[in-house]
Amino acid sequence: MHIPPYYKRPKWQTFFIGVIVGTMIGYLFFLYIYGEHTERWIEENLTLRQELKDLENDFELLKKDSDDQSEQLLRIQDVEIELSNTEQVKLDRFTTIRLTSLIEDEIGEVVGDHIESVNEQRDLLIRTIENKNFRVNQIQYQVKVVFLSIGPTLDVTLEVRVQSS
User: What is the model's pTM?
Assistant: First the structure.
């Protein structure tokens, strides 16, 4: 029995090349879609972890705080951090989330403190943020406080710089 030599016919060569090229294009399309899905899932996972940590902190504050509602309004209840120049420094979403989380961990101890005491120690709070180098993905970042608002919500706007070695 003899197998016919299909590799010598041009129509069969075209067919086999089309199958190989189509397979490669399909595989590259699959890799792209899978990468996008994985990136979206990781970002959502990081966001949910941060929200869970915030809710656990809020729960701990509610457990330990037994003061009345008027006293509660005179305390810092939440910390909001905004990075102002993420586009200029070219930070991706994951680095932004991780950097914000590290900064919140650094100044999160003021949650539950009286607004007056935090306002008196404003310079110390600013120096605490600015003198710390934050390491994300083997890159050192230094932040500078641009705006600080002290109230029931501590609003901090920061400017990010890459720390030169």
Answer: 0.64
